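Comment on this:
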Amino acid sequence: MSSGRLTLVCASSRHAAEPTFGESIDTGPACIASFAGGLETRANRSVLVSPSVHARGLATALGLDASIEQALAACSFGRWSGQRMRDVADAEPKAFASWLADPTSAPYGGETIASVSERVASWLVALGAESGAWIAFTHHEVVRVAVLHVLGAPLAAFARVDVGPEAFVDVTWHRGQHRLRM
């Protein structure tokens, strides 16, 4: 039977001014130092990265040889991409509330959170059949749906999970059972 460990890293920086849809990722010296500190205890792991330019750039800035994993891709937020969440909530309060309340809603014209969840859950199940240790640089919404999947929580709880910038979330598995390690 397989057993393994995956560390999901929210590759957004605490140095960013405010949360946005499709967060850009800081690769400045202060940001790199913050991430490097969290990686010290997670050495000797295979490195996976979202296909986003920013996540790949962060892995490169950290000196890591990373493989692109499509399942780690950020949600496509359509016309909301790059906008601050606060601005969207002010400009489109009904659409923003719909997005928060319904994971099958995509008022921005992009991918739904439900779609992201299906993609990430399928990947976690497949990865759970393997033995090894990985670290994966991805986006807050990917980490959020992964946490819900591991806990067996309903997708409606998506808006109740906050994943901070530069967060490290550990998932372990043994004999097909995923666990959240904190």
